[in-house]
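Task: sequence design from structure.
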């Protein structure tokens, strides 16, 4: 699914960049240009960053 229509960037591409270490909207913009034109997709990019960061946090043991 396209997240950034202006630059033709898919959710898969953004997810790939997050897995490679991108953790801010600016880093996503620098990697693949998503969110650099009309900026209507920035909210979705931010949501993807939040979702993926929570999914990849290591489990912690409670005392």
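Answer:
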């Amino acid at each position: 699914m396209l997240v950034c229509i202006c630059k033709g960037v898919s959710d898969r591409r953004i997810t790939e960049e997050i897995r490679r270490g991108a953790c801010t909207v600016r880093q996503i913009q620098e990697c693949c240009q998503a969110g650099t034109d009309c900026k209507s997709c920035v909210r979705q990019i931010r949501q993807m960053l939040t979702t993926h960061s929570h999914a990849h946090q290591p489990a912690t043991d409670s005392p």
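The first strand starts at residue 2 and ends at 4.
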